[in-house]
Amino acid sequence: MFIDLIRRRKIVGPREALSSIKDGAVVAVSGFNMALTPDYLLKELFDQYVETGHPKDLFIVSDTLPGSPGRGLDRIARGMIERGDFEFLRGVLLPFLGWTPNLQKLIKDNIIEGYTWSIGIMSYWFREVGSGRPGVVSRVGLATFLDPEYEAGALNDLARERRTAKIDYVKLGGRIYLFYQAPKPDVALIRGTTADEIGNITLEGEAITGTVLNIAQAAKAQPNPGVVIAQVMRLARFGSLNPKCVQVPGPIVDYVVVTKDPDFHRQTANIQYDPRVSGEIIPPTDTGIEEPSPLNPRKVIARRVLLQLVDIIKQEKRPIIVNLGIGIPSLVTSIAIEEEIENLLATTIESGPWGGKALAGEDFGASIGPYAIIPMPDQFTVYEGGILDAASLGFLQIDRHGNVNPSVLPGRMTGPGGFPVIATGSPRLYFAGLFTAGKQDIVVENGKLNIREDGEIVKFVDHVFKILCAGTNLLRKKEVLYITERAVFRLTGEGLVLEEVAPGVDIDRDIIGKMEFKPIVKEEPKTMDTRLFRDRRMNVLREILSSLEM
Q: Is 499 a catalytic residue?
């Protein structure tokens, strides 16, 4: 009888659950792109507003980005633009906006407030607020656009004026830190796979575990405990779920809504369901099944990063822990599989997976065949605490001081993602990207790099548009390299030193002539390893085994 009463009150339709959201509410939403995004709840919430005019004036906060083009928050933003009705949202605090062009437009046009923090800081923030603390204190973001001396994470004039989310300085033990603050959530919209009759939530079919528990805790914390609404795929009988698999205990879940359409419960933007993504099946590794990727400039860069990681393995004489960011760094896993050394790289991605093959683009955040998936705040503890050996991250711009801008350009508001925390904590950093941008025709042939047509956009500039990683902070690292298809630079106290040049490349014409500043050239740069430019394996496994025998 008691269980039946709870079930009738808790397992409800979307409108009954969402009617508890009041005008002006702060709504926390889970989601790393489409992984863990409660897409059905978001759709129904906006549909309810369209029909009734309520709730409105909402402020959305998330651990990453609950959306992709045409889905989640981007669908809502598109609907607002098409209707010419902008009362539903008053602002957002999101670490990443790269897959939501419509939401970016609302921020760029100063229609809603736009704020951005690093993913790690945001996931910590939910945990801190859930613990009754006022925010996050960290040195992540100092001397970058997150610093109050610059933009303090505000993306437009409306945000700079209202400061709904703010970053201030605090001094502790004689050191300066940043204090990240935002309003406590009134509502949490989270997602799981299965709920039982009292609302216990498991995530067995999801790509990641994310920050769902911490988001629910933040909404429920004192003062003014809020409402937690969970989207799930299916229901189970009370007592049938393994207690160790329950990620969110039922007593802190107010409503459970079962997804009507599985298309609103995708593992990633392009994957409806794959047991290899959720870790229910770990596929066997067979390098003979997968064809090697074609040899092109992007592969050259990923290979060069891998060689640097191989050096660490040889030095440490053990497998190493690494983070591989979005873009070219995410290709390193595939190269490691080709070279049969994937088991010597404990690859991690921000959302929580360890091992496997990281997916790219809109599906980034998920991995095929990970051997571990941990909560996102714990993953970022690994990064900020330096509990890894190295990281490879992408870049859009680099300047003479070693400052890095990975994602922000005029009119392009992608946000920092996990970049600031990883760049702060990792002891070794290998920034990886193409030397120029724009239309280009660059091929690898006859063991050389042939630049038939170079990109017209310079990426090595006098001053980056936005500093997301300060060169002054990087000088404390064991090693910082900037790796491209035609050159490798090392960061020193004097600036960027040109250390390696690709075969077939003219230093003055193809490197210095395509930079806004002149790098330091102390002596004749070395030629990049010729194995990078040949269409066969580099055979790094042999040299690793030889080093272990010494």
A: no
